[in-house]
Automatic annotation (TrEMBL):
TM ranges: none
Protein known as: Reverse transcriptase domain-containing protein
Source species: Duganella aceris
Domain Reverse transcriptase, chain residue ranges per copy: 1-188
Pfam families reported for this sequence: RVT_1
InterPro entries: DNA/RNA_pol_sf, Rev_trsase/Diguanyl_cyclase, RT_dom
Amino acid sequence: MPAWTSKFELKPGTWVFVPTADSIKTGRELKLEIEQKWRAPEFFYHLRAGGHVKALQAHLGNSRFARLDIKNFFGSINKTRVTRCLKSIFPYPQAREMANISTVLHPVDRNSILPFGFVQSPIIASLCLHRSALGQYLQTLSRRKDLVISVYVDDIILSSDNEHDLTVALTEIKSRATRSNFIMNADK
């Protein structure tokens, strides 16, 4: 029995899955379990009080800005990646079960994906980002005094007063995104 009642294409290639009441309950439980075992980085503003407003305010002291967007963020995270990331904080059988509950088959290509619309999807996607080569580089950047970074779900904002440092960081972010199988949205 599916964990969703309906699905629709929000924009080409981006599907929203409407969870069942049972799936919402299970999603809340999974989210809470993950929150108890994993602490999101401070620069993941979508998981903090204040959200997008605080994410933007963090950059007010700088004069140079860059914004990147991960294309089809949830859809680029498959069941195998979810399992691998969850098993870093849970035993493998539990991680695999959580991944089975939290992923669906893409309506077109039939690959397993983390669905947009499930309660647990944002925190699982955040954990997967954090555990990726891209996420590890973002963590490194967050420790620098000359750069400010904020992440809000799939949006990454960098700022600095030094244009060269910002350009170097952007080049490396794009490289790490490719290594992590995240595609940066060229339209944004």
